[in-house]
Amino acid sequence: MKVDLIIYNAGQLVTCASEEKPKRLAQMRDAGLIAGGAAAIQDGIISAVGTNAEIFDDFEAENTINAAGKVVCPAFVDPHTHIVFAGDRINEFEMKIKGADYLEIMAAGGGILNTAKKTRAASLADLVEQSSARLDKMLAHGTATAEIKTGYGLDTETELKMLQAVEELDRNHAVDLMATFLPAHAVPPEYKKNPDEYVDLICGEMLPLASRWYEMSFYRNGIDTGWTFNTPPPAVQKDIKKFALRHKPLFVDVFCEKNAFNLEQSRRILETAKSLGFKLKAHVDEFTNLGCARAAIGLGATSIDHLDATSDEEIRLLAESDTIGIVTPTVNFNFGAAHFADARKMIDAGCAIALSTDYNPGSAPCPSQTMAMAIACRYQKLLPAEAFNAVTINAAFGLGLGEKTGSLEVGKQADFLILDTKDYREIAYEFGSNFVETVIKNGRVVFNG
Ligand code: NIG
Ligand code: FE
């Protein structure tokens, strides 16, 4: 059979194959290796995966890529980032080196509020330009699908401007994007004395407007589908790169933490979001356990993220649920912390664990999922195979995209990396190097290092 593209001669084809489920327990230790592997691709979709001999027996293609004995694996998925923001926080980096604490900096109007000031003042074009440069770095480090959160606006206008920025980036950048609406990232200064009124604003105005904005993306694209948020989306329009049109859910997230949002406020926001049809995520237990893991799992959240102070009982609940646990060891590393989320215990308990960079200007200025892997292997005791599954298939499930990307399996998007190594474990073993040589997204080369 004739296909568009054959990638062949992979010394190791790391498939991360999972048969439509996130990986748990022993499956996490299986990277799904095929020695001397190849893949056939048609219309941006994987037609077949196998050995060189199997693929060349059944397929021929005008375009071929010889992986020359290197590692070929799924392109990485980064399921938790905050990369739409203006400016940087290099000054706070120095303050932290000298001993200031993240929550103290935040309480004094720094941290997220510092970035919010700059983000409010930035134009949409400026935000898109700064964020696009960050996406370039992520792509160069192998990430071809990523989530981006709002949360540096903290007012209706800027939060919607951030959603608009994600949409523009998704349309124009090779990295495929998912948007998460996070007005509940910090209490803005205007509401410092009465945070519940900010929660009223989120539930009464911001969430309904974000839902409306999402519906309207069809109209902005010039297509009147008659679709509303509560009916199933229309069929994918092939040539239109637009996230609402590609059956992407919009997520709502909340930062449940001391000096941010308490459990009652977080639950109210998540429940309101759920009733409006959003999918849910939650920042839980980053510093303090306020009980939000249980609440978010109970509401059917797609993921709960951070998990640094999560209890054994909550780990058991997570293991029994379909919710993905997303850990962010770049944050602990960035703080020079001795404590890390106990991802080892979570995996051994049966949780489906994913890794993210949490790329943001404060707690994790890091574009690289391989850096997250390197830290996770050392401080959270993940094996390289577990770290691989955590940045591919489980990360895809952490965005509700597990059936589309994150593994090299028939019917999935042809999202590949060629890594300049012969042993897939080397990318976690050697740190500080970038092994990414080629990124292929939907069957097209989008980066060549
Ligand atoms: O995931 N925890 C809250 N949000 C980010 C930090 C964002 C920032 O510091 O700007 C996080 O760590
Ligand atoms: Fe975060």
Outline the structure in words:
With 449 residues, the protein is α/β, with parallel strands linked by helices. It contains 17 helices and 16 strands. Strands 1, 2, 3, 4, 5, 14, 15 and 16 form an 8-stranded mixed beta sheet that branches. The chain has an 8-stranded parallel beta sheet with strand order 6-7-8-9-10-11-12-13. Helix 7 (156-172) links the parallel strand 7 and strand 8. Helix 7 (156-172) runs parallel beside helix 8, helix 8 (195-220) runs parallel beside helix 9 and helix 14 runs antiparallel to helix 15 (384-391). The radius of gyration is 21 Å and the shape is globular. Residues 80, 82, 283, 358 line the site of fe (iii) ion (FE).
> Biggest sheet, open or closed, and with what strands and sense?
8 strands, mixed
Structural class: alpha/beta
Q: Report the helical percentage.
A: 25-40%
Mean pLDDT: 93
Instruction: Estimate the strand proportion.
Output: 15-25%
Please work out how many helical segments DSSP would assign. 17
Shape: globular
